[in-house]
Amino acid sequence: MSIVVEHFGRTYGTFTAVDDLSFEVSAGEIVGLIGPNGAGKTTTLRSLGGILLPTRGRIRVDGFDLAIDPIAAKRRLAFMPDEPHLFEYLTVEEHLRLVARLYGVEDFDRRAAALLDELELKGRERSLPAELSRGMRQKVVIACGLVRKASVLLFDEPLTGLDPLGIRRMRETIVARGQAGAAILVSSHLLHLVEEICTRVIIMDRGRKVADGTVAELASRADLAEAGSSLEQIFLHVTGNK
Amino acid sequence: MISASLYITACTTRNRIRVRLRRLREPRYLIGAIVGIGYLYFSIFAGRRGRSRGGRGRDSRAPIELGSAWQAIGSSLAGLLVFVLALLAWVLPARPGLLEFSRAETVFLFPASVSRRQLLVHRLVRSQVSSLVTSILMALLLAPSGGFERLRFAMAMWALFVTIRVYFAAVALTRAQFTSPRPLVRLAAWLPAGFLMAGSVVVGAAIVRQLTMQPVASPADVLVRLTGATATGLPSIVLWPFSAILRPQLATSATSFMQAMAGSLAVLAAVIAWMLANQSAFDLAVGEAGERSSDANARTPVVRVRQVGPALALSGRVEWAILWKNAMQTFRAVNLPMKRLAGPAIGLTIGLTGAAVGMSAGQNRGPAGFIAALGFAVTAISVVAGPLIMRLDLRSDFDHLDVLKTWPVRPADLIRGEMAWPAAFVSAIAWAGIACAALFSGAAMPDVPFVDRWSVAISALLVAPALIAAQYTVQNALALFFPAWVALGAQRARGIDAMGQRLIMLAAILLVLAIFAVPGGIAGAIVWLVLRNVMGVAVFVPAAVLFAAVVLTEVLVATELLGPAYERLDFTSVERGE
Asked: Do A171 and A117 lie in a common domain?
């Protein structure tokens, strides 16, 4: 298993954002993490990315415990947040170069050129974040995540700010990485996207996992029989908004 | 529009006060508030009581004494200082606060049916709260006596702050029109700059004339001559607006205050008129910046220079990568490529060396002493205040903590890397100051032997970086242990509780720094005791070597020990700006 989350919990003061969450994602799997606002998706992804410390439980990435061996675990994962947070005075190319140095990417030139082409950033190599649109900055963040050979990819709302062509390309990029053997966890409110590209879905509500399985499996569950067959219908049903 | 601005200002102020009162429920703010209030109490009231004990006569004489000093130095000399700063605003443009619109202001006001002129007036109205609060605080802390004089001082400071704010905004708006395609607009934009340039020629010529009449005897002589050059004739007319804004602060009577205030307000009115006259450049100067000002990634000023330094190598130590990142940030922020520094640095070194040799030969002690003292002051300020001012380390990168925490790097390497660039930068400034002081010390202190002077200078060269690195270690350690008390990125928490927090932090920094210096100090002192009879003043060099070695070893060990603190550091515990 590439991602193993065991009884993970996270609190902010007295507020419990995530409670006793357990799931696994294996190599080649694309798992959708969905839920209403405040369900704990971003907290989960940030904890998986090593940004937040779990209050309870364990998180393992490719067998490395994020609390015990964080460097080895982080070396294997790429977290692409929803808010493109870049260094104000580094160009696009310099961002990629910095990441390549920190992660020890060997064939940087080839990989960077291919990525810039794939994400339509060619010609913007020397641009600073301030000179890019939000969507372009989002692509830079994703390029930084993909420039290394990460075996675990975490996407938090990857399509925010992208134009229709960008959305299609991003969809293809995620699917291609999954087919190449990466374990992928995608958080998104775009249920049609999740339904289209994900092999499995985890639904969270108020910090807890309320459903886990393929859309077909969820639709065939006895308690969801009356919900309907689409992910949107299932989602609304399990989150109490039928 | 003014009523809308007043409404926004009043609501914001009221709600800000509510938020600050509400946050006192948290112990860290409550403790900060107690310390802050205590500090203000002792600064204002205890000081007043002390003066009262000294006798009412002395109290009432204080402003007159200051007034006399003011007369002696010459208001034109202070005006000269303001004039130089005003010139610098054109050469080294800063981002004027008056032209920075918040995201909410951009969203609500830019599409509203209000003119650009009204938007400028709106920002002026909104800036009044901070100007007033700062003026009142300064009056409470600095005014020589209470009552009406304190009120006068506050009014004078308010006029000064508003004039400075408006001046910077007017400069930014005028500069934005330098490249206007319309010749008349371009000409109008260049006019104020031309006036200032002509003024600087007039004042500069008078100063050169005064300084070259006969050799300067002492630093005090320099001040006397500067006063002489600027107090009369055309230079005094050129400098009048710049000294006028400083006159009310030290007026000695109600009548002289009213006269001085009239002059200061006249200057303020002229600067406001100038700013509003340039409102057509509003979109150029603030349109885009205002649109994106709330976004950290978009707060970057226009960067003209792309290639500022070497590309980052794809392999090597983490520390170098972080140092490179921070260096890029510095050089891009000032639009200066690294290679362009080499020429001026070499030229300056040759020029200063030549001047030092010349002064030494001509026994020109006055100017040499002045320059040596200046070099010493630069060094002292760099070592003491540099790490407080240049925060391009973890403290500023807390803003990017969500990115840093995902990197697969050893925390100690990251911390050292973050500290390396600002420490190197501040050390370079300190070294320049030491070199300058050492070069001119020969002419300034011909009686002190060469070996002694250079032994002290070399010792300072060794000690300064160690002290600077130690300070950065302490600052970053406190940031890691008490992240909630550290301002996030460039933002700073405000309020009396935040002031109290900063005072506690400052005391902690000084204490930890003293503890840091003790082992190195003991080692250096032992070397000094053992070898002083053999080596004389030159013993400072090995003592400094040992001191620096011990302190730098402590820095190395401390950064290793800080690793777990970084691992435990929670993204959510970092203070969010108001």
From this structure: no
